[in-house]
Amino acid sequence: MTELDDFRAQTRAWLEANCPPEMRKPMKSEKDICWGGRDFTFQSDAQREWLEVMGERGWTVPDWPSEYGGGGLSAEEAKILKQEMKALGCRVPLTSFGISMLGPALLAFGSEEQKQRFLPPIARGEIRWCQGYSEPGAGSDLAGLSTKAEDRGDHYLVNGQKVWTSYADEADWIFCLVRTSTESKHGGISFLLFDMASEGVSTKPIKLISGYSPFCETFFDDVKVPKDQLVHEENKGWTVAKYLLGHEREMISGMGLGGGKGSSLLSEALGEVDDPLLATDLARFDVDALAFQAMSEAFIDQLKAGEAHPALPSMMKYAGTELNKRRHELVMALGGSDALEWESDRSKEGARARDWLRTKANSIEGGTSEIQLGIVAKHILQLPGA
Amino acid sequence: MTELDDFRAQTRAWLEANCPPEMRKPMKSEKDICWGGRDFTFQSDAQREWLEVMGERGWTVPDWPSEYGGGGLSAEEAKILKQEMKALGCRVPLTSFGISMLGPALLAFGSEEQKQRFLPPIARGEIRWCQGYSEPGAGSDLAGLSTKAEDRGDHYLVNGQKVWTSYADEADWIFCLVRTSTESKHGGISFLLFDMASEGVSTKPIKLISGYSPFCETFFDDVKVPKDQLVHEENKGWTVAKYLLGHEREMISGMGLGGGKGSSLLSEALGEVDDPLLATDLARFDVDALAFQAMSEAFIDQLKAGEAHPALPSMMKYAGTELNKRRHELVMALGGSDALEWESDRSKEGARARDWLRTKANSIEGGTSEIQLGIVAKHILQLPGA
Amino acid sequence: MLKLNDDQRMLQDTVRLFMAEKGAISKQLRHWRDIGCKDGFGHSLWEEMGKLGLTGILVPEAAGGSALGQVEANVVLEEIGRNLTPSPFLTTAVAAVRALEGSAHAEKWLPGIAEGKTVAALAIDEGPHHDPSKITMTATRSGNGFVLDGDKQFVVQGASADLLLVAAATDDGPALFAVAPDASGLDIENVTLADSSKAARLSFDKVEVDADAQVGEGDAPLKRALAAGRAGVASELVGVAAGAFEMTNAYLRERKQFGQPIGSFQALQHRAAHLYGEIEIARAATLKAAQLLDEGSERAAMMVHVAKAKAGQVARLAVQEAVQMHGGIGMTDEHDIGFYMKRQAVIDQLFGGPDFHARALAQRS
Amino acid sequence: MLKLNDDQRMLQDTVRLFMAEKGAISKQLRHWRDIGCKDGFGHSLWEEMGKLGLTGILVPEAAGGSALGQVEANVVLEEIGRNLTPSPFLTTAVAAVRALEGSAHAEKWLPGIAEGKTVAALAIDEGPHHDPSKITMTATRSGNGFVLDGDKQFVVQGASADLLLVAAATDDGPALFAVAPDASGLDIENVTLADSSKAARLSFDKVEVDADAQVGEGDAPLKRALAAGRAGVASELVGVAAGAFEMTNAYLRERKQFGQPIGSFQALQHRAAHLYGEIEIARAATLKAAQLLDEGSERAAMMVHVAKAKAGQVARLAVQEAVQMHGGIGMTDEHDIGFYMKRQAVIDQLFGGPDFHARALAQRS
Fold first, then answer.
1. What residue ranges define each of the domains in chain B, with the CATH number in brackets?
2. pTM, rounded to two decimals
3. What is the value of ipTM here, to two decimals?
4. Residues of A at the D interface, defined by Cβ within 8 angstroms
5. Cα dihedral sign, D40-D45-D46-D47
6. pLDDT tens figures, D180-189
């Protein structure tokens, strides 16, 4: 194990030398996340510097091959890097759908040329990606999409509309499902990449019940997409999409959404609220949260060992998001009428209520709870179709 | 209102003169119920006497026409009788499926001759009836029955098997659904009456998880049933059955199963158990029980006014039985390990545990909770079929 | 009879039409929110409710009202709930009228309420959790009057009110005081809540009032206001639940996924059917509470706890199911269903949440 | 790694086969019940478990055991739960072994346990609700020993035990005493519980024991027994839940209604899928608790509370869904599914129910 010990020592030394002190403090809010991209406004020089040094080393994506801008680390080395970053309190230098979603899809399905062209800018945080999956009216039935891509020789002509495109108004490029054939529902879908600055692309933010607007409607009006930006084969985009959906659920469920984060139990928050009924709910929540935390650990260990059932992420996504919704219901109950204040300094701009409303989307986005239960029933329990 | 006042005074006087003192004490257990029938063993002379005098007057079935052995009372008079019986604490003189189920069906669908033949012995408690609906393997799909009745000229030849026949081993006659045609599922069912003493009828009690055996399997082996014991037309038995099912649900839901009986709240029973979590569950149960009690009152008033939706009994049956199951779960929790004792004097022969297990059938018998929810979804909410 | 009588049904028909038309979300709640109205409701609607006889529903005939009861007030509140109509009806026309009735203040204030002109607010809560048994605000005798000291919060429409009814502890126990919003030493902070309604935080710093500022005698006015307010908000919650449910049920029939209406999926059918039953039960419990109040029954207080607890619990389930069953569209501000969730959260806390009332019920027994 | 290692999996495979074969409901639970066996379990199976090395799973190698840990004990208990196999494993091979280990009594009793010959019982509860923090039974110093006075109940297999481990309050706090079942002044009432298992009520009337009857020192042996018993019964509950669920899942596929398997009805599918997840979560929590116990972690006690509470709650849901989904057949004594509901109810209370442990967790925090 000497080699790994060496790697650990070197890593720690490098991090200590290169991670700006400001980037070793915990993030205060979502605003401190570094998303990168052409138009990204860095919160500070330290944030920019930290992205640059990490991006240069490929440590924004430590386990990607180094020829595509990754760190080229083995699984053990990547784990050590993570541990050392955690030990020093280093912030994640870059968060993006390019890293978490498109990258893995390109590594699995992209052509050599596509990998060389698209992966390094993702690793360096130069291009920010968004995901064009959902369409108005399609809802849970993702494959029921109608955005059309017509073959025009050297390019596709894309027309249609997407919805729930996260941060489409801030993204540089989009990876997008389009219909290239109407002969088969799942077999007529293709996976395209294109620049959001292309002529004919426009976005409109969607205001949510929480008052935030993290999503957009995105419109395509005669957008020209060169054919070399098709990933995998034409009409085989659903294969890529399914791969990504599984990946997304794994990611969401792995985040331990709703778990007792660290050891913070809700019953500790009871404080002065002298209500035995609420105390009961908090105590029972803590049982469920800590049990789910154990399950998250077991899930990750099963994933690592390749022993997790492919549909297990659906169970995790369902259980985790429902738990998180319950957590926020309890936070609201703890807060009483204070927590209902929406616009006041005292209420931190209504953060409690807005966050609570935000959680209601947890069990809808990334596949509803009902969809996840259906997947578990079908693929794990192997119950017959109705 | 002088006439009704007179009726009230006369009724009270008659009850005072004729109801034996012993029959004015509350029943101690199910064993005190008077079921009547050819082989019924009366608990006491008083019980027999009470049945006789009430039966003679037709007050076992006060609102049935007097020509069929009923009391011939108007709705107002019947209500007054009920109130006065309650005021004096008089026990119900006779309980039977003949009164609660077959009687109403015969009044609605029976021939004149059938009414004259069968109703008076029901009113006098001379014949005890049981119900032959369910069959092994049919479960919730009542119409999926296969007990066969072949036309043999002047009689039907019945072969097959019923299950869940309540007290079949103690009943004198059965009202029974049989298949007279296989051409249509619902349209091939007929409604027959026959004597359980007929050749070819045998019964076998079913032991339940509670240890009790209130139900039987009932076997028919070449049983001959004269044709004048067919109720309504051949192949139209499902109409009678549906009428009775509605009636049964109304009865079950009207019993206020699971409601806080009287004003006894579970939280009063908390006593020395110093457990704030259990106290929470009891307090919440009491809210639900008292709310359901109000709903039962509203339901009965709607029924009386003819304003209840025909499917409302399904909602009541569902809510009431689920509530009753919850009540008994809480009674068990209150009892702790004491309540788990099954055979000991101290535990009253395991009454708490046995009653708790008994409640588990509430949401299965008379149409499962799932069936009731389906009925509400279809007939009240008018949601489309899947 | 635990159902509405013919007169009450006629009232229900009238109010249902009126609120669906004039009180609709697009015309009231969303409108006032989008223009940033400081009151959060429309005075013109309040006056129209006055003309229709609604604001005076509990006001004696001599003062221009119709002297009806809690059952009738609740009929109005269920429709307000169904349409999320912002108005001072609950606190002014129900709780405040009950507080003022029979007191020396009645003559002054009730006619204006019956006309839909006056707005009153109740200042009871002092912390984030309703608990009127622990009022710490003091009303100290001083000369020919009282001095009020302390803080209040969650005072619904407190910044729009012509009259503040303030609960404070006197030497003789808790009492209610009528305070003018411009009283010296009184600071009013207008706060926007999650449902875009307005509530105020009040701060009383040696606020002097006359002796006759006290409303009625002892804690009876406060208790009447609480009982009427709680029973009333229970009905509003039933209306919120029913409104959300009706909107959802329509969506279940109309919205298609995988080639069929989502309402044909059995899992959703069973959840909808369960919810239907719960709403019916909550409505029955609320009607029972209102009837008992109108009868002056001693069982009324118990049933009010049941009604508020049950209605709160059911309305919560209803809005959660509604938002979940609407899927993504339900998360957008553009769609109305989200408003139901926000309103439920606010009025769930108003006059005490389900836990407060379940506990109160258990402690009575 | 929060999963079983290869050795633990081999053990699991072995025990799963053994219990499914030898420990099946028809051969053990139903058999002993139907013949009215006074012990409620079979001594021959207990001996076979000894030969297979199961009863000595926690016993040190010197005493004939394999000195494995809670994780391994739990592997056995999950299979016991799945088959509802009656045996003294939980109290004897797990809780009692942990209580006795390292004490002067170990040498005398552990070899017999490892052979599947000795049966031990734990006498802790004094009222219907588990609460070992309030032991009122007294062990009073007297001469060269103690005098025990008080009552115990829910002493699992108390009437079949060779050794009773009795919790009593001494001047120095609670302690555990080894008492012979034939001690003078001790009355044992054998009680049949709802699941046909046997527990005893013990009554101690001036029962004299030697000073060395005390097991180990202070309350450590009692605490070890409780921790091991609680973690162990959590695994048994997971097994009960999993067994009921597997039986139900098979039934959902095979049973037809309205022309299709009932498992094709979406409402049942979603409930089954939810339950599946809950069982997985309960299993993970239980494994975590066992691992932490084996590591001697200070977080173990907390996680044991979580495991017992979660497993209890999930097993309750599992048996309720199982019985409901089986419909009428599930209500008959002839069908095995009802046994799961009865067993769940009994072991849910054993070593404290979900509420006890949720509360204990909250009070720690």
1. 3-109 (1.10.540.10), 128-234 (2.40.110.10), 239-380 (1.20.140.10)
2. 0.91
3. 0.92
4. 265, 267-268, 270, 279-280, 282-284, 286-288, 290-292, 294-295, 297-299, 301-302, 305, 307, 315, 318-319, 370, 372-374, 376-378, 380-386
5. positive
6. 999 999 999 9
